[in-house]
Design a protein that fits this description.
The protein is an alpha+beta fold. The protein contains 3 helices and 11 strands. The strands form 2 sheets. An 8-stranded mixed sheet has the order 4-2-5-8-9-1-11-10.
């Protein structure tokens, strides 16, 4: 079963989160697809090949893994994707898409897709928990809906308060 927390962030919040990861871990970031295999690896959460690409895979290099890339040809384009995520030591960061009112999440598949993980699950869980605890600690707001908390980082919470205030007027 997977583990996740719901988050709401802006691009500025995403950069603060990225800074936390870079300062505390040796991480590599991947976008899910790109026009070339080299462009699957991104240096910053702001780099994506597609305008509405919100998913980023976070690999802490403390956990051994070799990324594999595959090419897909469609009628109108070709693109590469990360093909071996199933058992990989990855955290999925889905960015908030504000214009589509879609909150983001921090997700670890754990045993959801497979019961054969090729890394130390207990140590990875510590990594995952350190990431989610940072989100919770640095959230400036939280909304509970249908029993699920959504944690808002700084700018996202300010925008929420501003939007709610305007709606009440």
């Amino acid at each position: 079963m997977g583990r996740q927390i719901q988050i709401c962030t802006t691009d500025d919040d995403n950069l603060v989160f990225e800074g936390f990861l870079k300062q505390n871990f040796d991480c590599v970031f991947f976008q899910p697809s790109a026009p070339t295999a080299e462009k699957l690896i991104i240096e910053s959460f702001t780099e994506t090949s597609h305008p509405f690409s919100s998913q980023i895979f976070i690999w802490n290099k403390a956990f051994p893994w070799t990324p594999a890339f595959e090419l897909i040809n469609t009628v109108d384009r070709q693109y590469y994707y990360l093909s071996n995520t199933r058992n990989a030591p990855l955290i999925e960061f889905s960015k908030t898409i504000p214009n589509h009112v879609v909150n983001g999440r921090i997700y670890w598949s754990k045993f959801f897709l497979s019961d054969t993980l090729l890394y130390n699950v207990e140590d990875f869980e510590k990594f995952y928990l350190s990431v989610t605890k940072w989100i919770i600690k640095n959230a400036t707001g939280k909304i509970k809906y249908m029993g699920i908390n959504t944690y808002y980082l700084g700018n996202a919470w300010s925008l929420k308060i501003e939007t709610d205030t305007k709606a009440e007027q």
